[in-house]
Amino acid sequence: MVGAPEEGWRRARIAPSLAEVYRSVPVNKATAFRKLLAFAGPGYLVAVGYMDPGNWATGIAGGSRFGYALLSVILLSNLMAVLLQGLAAKLGIVTGRDLAQACRDHYSKPVAMALWVLCEIAIAACDLAEVIGSAIAINLLFGIPLPWGIAITAVDVLLVLYLQNRGFRYLEALVISLVAVIGGCFAFELYASRPDALLVAKGFIPTTDIISNPTMLYLAMGILGATVMPHNLYLHSSVVQTRKYELNAEGKREAVRFAFLDSTIALTVALFINASILMVAAATFHTTGNTEVAEIQDAYKLLTPLLGVGAASTVFALALLASGQSSTITGTLAGQIVMEGFLELRLRPWLRRLITRMIAIVPAATVAILYGESGTAKLLVFSQVILSLQLSFAVFPLVNFTSDRKKMGEFVNSTLLKTTAYVVATLIAALNVWLLIQTFSGWLG
Q1: What's the whole-model pTM score?
Q2: Beta bridge partners of 243
Q3: What does the domain layout of the chain look like in residue ranges?
Q4: How far from 142 is each of 146, 147, 223, 299, CA to CA, in Å?
Q5: Could you tell me the CATH superfamily of domain 27-444?
């Protein structure tokens, strides 16, 4: 345990570990509102994973092709995310173990190693999406070629390491600021595109067309399948432990409640942003007959001329850059958590970050040089397919652990919650399998 944040981070420079800052953020006991502010932060670190560049393509394609019809799928996806992230927070607070540590404790060494490898692949795939998204944004904003933009993304590690040495709240503050930038950008895009309020309301109501139309169903599966990021579950179960809550039953119960409020509020912001991406695409492209817009670069080129607002494309690219950079921070933290949790192996943050980023940069730069924009767009989609492969290997252990009375005691999932969680886990698994089959069938065909 750490007596003060400064002491923890001083030791972290020698033996870097997120555990060094566990219980380092004090919880004000004055009012419920101040307690909520004290617990605010981890939810936003998690929420950026739901608005990273990998999610933009499905939103743009869904909105341009089918208008507002897939808003109901985004809403359903968000409700699933609220449930699973709530379980991840509860696991960390109640047991004092993050999801990676819980897997190492529960499973045999070969199984735990397999889960670690799968998770590392997923983190690399997520970083790949962030690299490509950030490089595209840099290209759109400054005209820098994609290969050079990809190289520039390696520099962000310096910012992450600097803030890590300043304290955990600085990282949270940066992420919240970037989320605010993304939200502000899309508030502007919504104002400029002026979506039909009645059609938006209808879009949140599910229709049978989503199931009966194969193309719509495919896009719906893409939205659902890539919504819950596996590394976010590991991340959330760890970062909630940075709060200095009481370790008795009452203190843990309060911490679980405020952590759930924090993540729910943050994911509501993510819902607004993801829905906004689709609504802007629907109002700008679908209504003007541009139903084949599916790539980020195409959306950027068409926003200003179709909306007649000079800053529309620039604001869109700025939001994309903020999305990529905010996701980078959480990916770095998740990588540390997973490696330490599964292997009890500590690497210095710069080395851990460099390894992950190089794994992403090499294929991204190669594809950008050989195939250009179209190649990077396909690689962006492929990264989401890789993420979907690993998802169930994080979701099912999480639901299993939080439904185990031996691990959770009085905080064990109720029968209703347990049943709902397993239904969600099974649905996500089925949708991801279907998405994988359709994706590979399309490539082979």
Answers
A1: 0.85
A2: 25
A3: 27-444
A4: 11, 13, 30, 17
A5: Amino acid/polyamine transporter I (1.20.1740.10)
